[in-house]
Amino acid sequence: MAMAYDLGHHGDAETAPGLLDLAVNVRGSAPPAWLRGRLERGLDRLGSYPDQTAAVRAVARRHDRDPAEVLLTAGGAEAFVLVARALRPDRAMCVHPSFTEPESALLAAGHPVDRLVLEPPYVLDPAQVPDDVDLVVLGNPTNPTGVVHERVDRLCRPGRVVVVDEAFADAVPGEPHSLAGRGDLPGLVVVRSLTKTWALPGLRVGYLLAPPGLVEQLRSAQPLWPVSTLALIALETCLARGPVASADKDARVLERERDLLAAALADLGVEVSPGSRAPYLLCRVAGREDVRERLRDQGIAVRRGDTFPGLSPEHWRVAVRGPAERDLLVQALGAVL
What we know:
Layout: E1 20-21, H1 33-41, H2 53-63, E2 70-73, H3 75-86, E3 92-96, H4 101-108, E4 113-117, E5 135-139, E6 161-165, E7 188-193, E8 206-209, H5 212-219, H6 229-238, H7 241-267, E9 271-272, E10 280-284, H8 291-297, E11 300-301, E12 303-304, E13 315-319, H9 323-336
Parallel strand pairs: 1-11, 3-4, 3-5, 5-6, 6-7
Antiparallel strand pairs: 2-8, 7-8, 9-10, 10-13, 12-13
Helix pairs in contact: 2-6, 3-4, 7-9
């Protein structure tokens, strides 16, 4: 029998007042001032129903896609629910360890789900997905390992839907592995959001990119006006050329911080899963299932790992922040270990 995992557990459950939050992967505690100003001015538009036209065009321009290939969603999580509601796969497969919400959505819609659980270093070989799988879901970069899977395009074929969660794709400088611009691949659904980069988890704003027929199929499972006016303003604003360039610059800073954090953790004897290109690291101390709780006693919240299929109570995920947070974590870990 497959091991049971708490698929509904997420990093926000680890946080509490007074704790340094290294459990949630959102960069910053609030949107930047320039974005907040746009949102505040948008309050005057709340008396009208949302009009998606400008936001859809912004997404299409950002990824060089036709507007018919764009579907706006209430965060990335809604996209997974739409896939589960609108499609009728004969054999669905989720690649793990990975974000658990897609599997939860499929199970809630009554679909049996096969798991492909990868071994360390958790990198997918497309040949590992059986030919008869007609719906496959994976993250790229993957949460919580941070790894980037190469040649994901090889999974795409007629008769199969491939859902790629790219929630953290803009954390990789230049986004070299993103498939968001690939309108030529059959059955490809790329899911993106603004949540992590622009500190907007409370606004619920995202989108997916897919062939037009698949977009219409997924749209049929949506309610009317699924994306709020303020979320539409955020899309128009954050997907403009300036903010996109700013996000790429921030990704390069984050890359350096991640390397420094990984080195500091390794010096303490922490096993850091290699290859992360995301704003977090998957960590483990062999024989120590108590590290996460001991860190909590030291005032630091990290994300438990044993709710991800393929990981154990020894695993925990830590968000990459700045030098001050890194120093506090290293000091606390020194006391714990």
